[in-house]
Amino acid sequence: MSAADFDLAVIGSGPAGLAAAALAASRGLSTVLLDEQPEAGGQIYRAITDTPVRDRRVLGPDYWRGAELLGPLRDSGAVHWPGSTVWSVARPRDEDAAAAAGTSERTLQIGLSRDGAASMLTVRHVLMATGALERPFPIPGWTLPGVLGAGAAQILLKTSGLAPSGRVALAGTGPLLWLLAWQYLRAGVALDVILDTTPRANWRAALPLLPGFLRSPYLGKGAKLLLDVRRKVKVVDNVTALRAVGEGQLAAVVYRRGDEEERSLAADTLLLHHGVVPNLNLANATGCAQQWDEGQRCWRPTTDDWGATSVEGVSLAGDGAGIGGAVAAEQAGRIAALDILRRLGRIDRAERDAAAIPHREGLERALRGRAFLDTLYRPSAAFRVPADDTIVCRCEEITAGAVREAVRLGCSGPNQAKSFLRCGMGPCQGRLCGPTVTEVIAAERGVSPAEVGYYRLRPPVKPITLAELAALPKTEADVNAVQKH
Ligand SMILES: Cc1cc2nc3c(=O)[nH]c(=O)nc-3n(C[C@H](O)[C@H](O)[C@H](O)COP(=O)(O)OP(=O)(O)OC[C@H]3O[C@@H](n4cnc5c(N)ncnc54)[C@H](O)[C@@H]3O)c2cc1C
């Protein structure tokens, strides 16, 4: 069994991964930073090194702050492998052979694809900083061309400077929706309307949490951003129903405000968003325990205060461990890196605890106001548990009604629903239907999502070609041969 290629592999080069890799490498761990994207940055700082949007006022100061994380990474000696898609993390099958070979060290093997070739990497510890995904927002017509996620649209803006033209409607709730509207306005993009689905009741529910928000970094910039957008764009509040309509292409958005009459609005582009959820596929397929988070209404991997998961040798930091935002992700990345240094014997517990103090303070500050935002922007049940005719699994075109029917036939959870319906078995591996299928089953059974559970995922968590799999080295000799090239 080969010795480890690296002490630490960090998967994800967003704020959590960048900060963790820089700290771990600067303190002597041989560290590789892997990310499927062509360059570092993650979601928030996507394309920070070469975005075509050069006018800094458009993406705003929070975006450009990401550049400050690149220097420490460069200087740390960490190896950065952009364009690396990780599709599995597991104990080497022949771990016992390793013990027999006199290397009693526990290692992990990472399956990754890079430049169309698959390879296996052996490391002593893995930090998953895989971030967040947009929460699925299934409405009738969401699969029509012309309808996409606001986060996806923001990716087009950051990476290619692309923005929608014609009649543009934004719909949903959550900070990212307003941020994108603000960025578009700064880029000179005309927006026709924002259909705000934030339930009125959420304001009442969030009120008790206001004090924390008033002491948070979100207050000033959030309020200014909202006022800016509301001054320039028509906003329809309290939207309780939404449909995208059109023959083969989006033509209009039909919406209802409160319990008023339905109204229709011609539109060429509809950008949907109602929050982000942890990207848990890799952690789930690696066997990390996960739990239902009622506050954020989503599943997330279970971690301790240092980011350690239930799988030995696997830590997790950033939005992949629960939504906290970019600054919290950065601090959590550093805290996890310090614990990994202790686990790999580079520092002792006392040194770890002392070094973590400023990062814990930074994390506490960054998380102030989070509970207020989570409560205020919690999507309504109507948009989390769609009507029968709405497609919930886009890969297999399974409707909410079919899931309900399966429950009435005895299906009790998402994994059974897979065999009943094939939902969650397509190329996205449940990324676009997992949260919805759990909520639809829970509502139909009248139990909590915690009781229903989530898909049990297996590698590969990202599509890889059979040719890549077949080309994977088979023997020790092969391994050594491949790593030399
Ligand atoms: C589409 C989108 C846009 C967002 N835009 C903003 C914004 O503009 N401002 C803001 O404040 N917040 C934004 N957020 C919220 C964002 O989650 C956090 O602000 C922050 O980026 C979280 O940092 P992180 O380090 O935890 O993960 P992320 O920044 O999400 O980085 C995770 C990285 O891991 C990579 N990755 C995931 N799985 C794999 C794998 N299997 N193999 C290889 N690489 C993998 C991803 O491609 C990504 O680059 C956005 C979220 C989303 C989903």
TrEMBL record:
Q: Name one GO molecular function term.
A: oxidoreductase activity
The yes or no answer to whether the keyword Oxidoreductase is present is yes
Entry superkingdom? Bacteria
Question: InterPro entries annotated for this entry?
Answer: BFD-like_2Fe2S-bd_dom, BFD-like_2Fe2S-bd_dom_sf, FAD/NAD-bd_sf, FAD/NAD-binding_dom, Metab_Enz_Cyan_OpOx_G3PDH, Opine_Oxase_asu/HCN_bsu
Q: Does the keyword Oxidoreductase apply?
A: yes
> What keywords were assigned to this record?
Oxidoreductase
Boundaries of each BFD-like [2Fe-2S]-binding domain copy? Answer: 391-442
- Pfam family name, one: Pyr_redox_2
Q: Where is the FAD/NAD(P)-binding domain?
A: 6-333
Cited PANTHER family: ANAEROBIC GLYCEROL-3-PHOSPHATE DEHYDROGENASE SUBUNIT B
Name the record gives this protein: FAD-dependent oxidoreductase
Species of the source: Azospirillum cavernae
Lineage here is: Bacteria, Pseudomonadati, Pseudomonadota, Alphaproteobacteria, Rhodospirillales
